User: Fold this.
Amino acid sequence: MQPKQLSFLPDQASSIAGSVDGLYAFLVLVTAFFSLLIAFLVVFFAVKYRRRSDDEFPQPIHGSLLLEIVWSVIPLGISMVIFGWGASIFFKESRPPADSLEIYVTGKQWMWKLQHMEGQREMNELHIPVNRNIKLTMTSEDVIHDFFVPAFRTKADVVPGRYTTEWFRPTKVGQYHIFCAEYCGTRHSGMIGTVYVMEPSQYEAWLTGGGAQGTMAQKGEALFQQLACVNCHLTDGHGRCPNLVGVFGSDVKLKGGATVKADAAYVRESILNPQAKIVDGYENIMPTFQGLVTEDGVLELIEYVKSIGAKDAANSGTTGGSTTGAPAAVPTSKGPPPISPTQTLPSTAKPAAGSMK
Ligand code: CUA
Assistant:
């Protein structure tokens, strides 16, 4: 049973693809076996027990305990095998390893926007190194989309107002399709893209060659100043709003006594719906930034807050939730430059992310 030879399947280009195909092949074989068995028995019994004369009457049957036990226990056993096998793959597929390279995805009618921590942005393209664990943190600007790379055998819904995750470990250099796998309107079928799995050295060259204007955390810091967040979130603790240094990954005490884990979802809510949770000791004075900052911008702000947050919790911010303890992947950004010092500022400098729509 080596499904790689079935040419109607896409490439097996991730670490998990083989086990998904194995389970799939098992399901097909079990289904085919019982379909053929039943079809054969229908014909066989029809011939064997056909009525041979008009005065022939069959013996009535009043049940068989043995038969009923057999046809209950065997399917139960098969179902439990499928359940256990499927669950083990599901758990593996839904827990991003702690050492994953993080990439942010924003779905939008009808395109994919991707951001690398190092600051690179892509549209309908994703460049990644081979043999690295990749974790996508995804959200949508409008309706539900679904990020699907068939060659990686993994997909996950991309939902407005929340962060979902997806991870994979590409094992083969090459180009692979990205599809949107959730009907999202007129041009759903055109919401496609390409993953470029590259040798690590090529990937490094790609990363440095793309003219990214600062890391995501640096862009977030620029946005933090541009949106005037700095005026209230003072770092000396005397601001009208909480000091954000060290907050990310910590437990925040709220007015009324509850506590909340400061993860990506909490930071996002605090930006777009600040009234939802008021930090203990502060007033409900922050205006909403809904409409003033894009989802991409929110992700950059999260990266900034993460970069000044608790180091050992840098990865715990998303719905995956199980990756606490990973080292911070972004160097803490200190000082003002939203533009990396090695780059000259072009006259057509891109506007800060918050003002892009
Ligand atoms: Cu996006 Cu379908």
Q: What stands out?
A: The chain has six helices and twelve strands. The helical segments are 17-48, 65-94, 200-209, 216-226, 264-272, 295-307. Residues 76 and 245 are 54 Å apart (CA to CA). The first strand starts at residue 101 and ends at 108.
